[in-house]
Amino acid sequence: MALLAIGLTDLITTILWLRAGCAVEYNPVMAALLHAGVGVFVLAKLLTLGAYVGVIEWYRRRRNPVFARMIGNITVAAYLCIYAVSFCCVNWSFLLGRS
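RE: above sequence
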């Protein structure tokens, strides 16, 4: 659930930042999808997030729940770190008090 919440927050803020001109999509694959349209970009983000969560959930139920939980926790931590760095980069001048 945490990964879904982070992923959806990332998707929404990415779209808002891109529309405001405050961000650039650096992932070349996602940038190409964004160039094809916001709908394509959103669909790709949701499909990749859903596929990842689905595989982890399948692995948790059928193979090794301890390993799946560990990988899930590592993924959440890494995603939060990447999101935090991105947020700081986008809002750098605001965070320093320079609006």
